[in-house]
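Researcher: Final request for today, and then I'll write up notes for the group meeting. The sequence and the SMILES for nicotinamide-adenine-dinucleotide follow.
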Amino acid sequence: MSPTQQDQDQDHARLGDTSSSTSSSSQPQAATLSAPAPSTTTPLPSRCEKICLIGLGAIGISFLALHLTFSGAQISVYDPRADLDEHIAAILPLYLPATLSVDELRSQGRLRICASLDDALLGATIVQEQGPEKEVFKRDTWRAVVTKVARSCRLWSSTSGISASRQLEGFDDAAAGDGDEDGDLAASARQRLLIVHPFNPPHIMPLLELVPSPSTLPEEVEFAKQYFLALASGHRPIVIHKETKGFVANRLSFILFREACHLVNEGVVSVDELDEVMRASLGPRWAVKGVFEMYGFGGGSKGMRGFLDGIGSSIGELWDDAGDLDFKDEGWKDKVVKQTDEAYGLPTAQGIRARDAGLRAVVQCQERMDGAHER
Ligand SMILES: NC(=O)c1ccc[n+]([C@@H]2O[C@H](COP(=O)([O-])OP(=O)(O)OC[C@H]3O[C@@H](n4cnc5c(N)ncnc54)[C@H](O)[C@@H]3O)[C@@H](O)[C@H]2O)c1
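Model: Predicted protein-nicotinamide-adenine-dinucleotide complex:
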């Protein structure tokens, strides 16, 4: 067996450990979407990139694991949280393959944990922000960033809902303090900023919604797409055609979430019963085929037309009857929080491992299906 092959097989065996201590290399791989973690002897894509991650909360640390596992990029991170070191030590090893150690990544210079934003931005070719979901934070961050990085630097935001246009609203060269006569720093920032919206947790979930503003250059979108495809991590970047509140996946998810909260609030089902309804129905159904393709089957030989004509009136009645919760009302929130905490407790390391193993298994199963069937 060649050293490379051996490395990869060892990677496979160890990666299985993230979900179960009894995993072996002969079992389905659990640590990546489809590809094994890169071995030290495998050339890695994006070795030349220097990525600065701003904000290392739930999304930042998961993206960090993704870049560290599948790219050769050097990563610098900045987050002012007081418990940053403990947070990294507690969570990052859960997300990395066992072949990668945080201490080694730091000593090799693959990972730099920086005490200031300026330090983290040094030499950055890509800046990816996942700080607080506040417009003022995004605006202030980009103002600080663009004056300190090269004009070729890619600008990506992980925001769940603040469009690239809004993040740079009111941004002009005077605001940026750009004294350079041939500057036009603000216009250049607009051409480079796009949303790279992940689905949590991004080190596993394949979807990346790439959402440009009308000013973003097509080549910036293409670069982001090619970067993630080149990782061979199984990620599926999808370009969204128009800036819309919440993009696409969250619009679908949060509307469903509202109805779920409404049904619990009305006492129709409990939190855990609703979860089981979901897992036994829409979960597997939509993992196999998407919304439209699947409902097309519901219309028999007439497809979608048959489906809409057949049960359209029931659909219309349900749309009219959908729950309309007020987000300022704490009553339904208390009910949902209490039931969720009682049913599941708060997230633990063991829970995260189980979630990740389950998600990986489903995604890998989906990939096998897609490979096995003509679409
Ligand atoms: N949580 C999700 O499911 C999810 C999914 C997709 C996208 N997002 C988006 O990702 C972003 C981050 O979300 P999250 O859930 O990771 O939030 P989070 O609260 O877990 O993390 C935010 C991090 O930003 C840090 N921060 C605060 N001020 C900062 C500053 N000045 N500079 C750098 N870092 C700073 C905080 O210390 C924290 O660690 C948001 O824009 C959110 O909309 C979240």
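Model: The chain has a mean pLDDT of 87. The chain has two domains: 6-239, 249-344.
Researcher: Thanks, that's everything.
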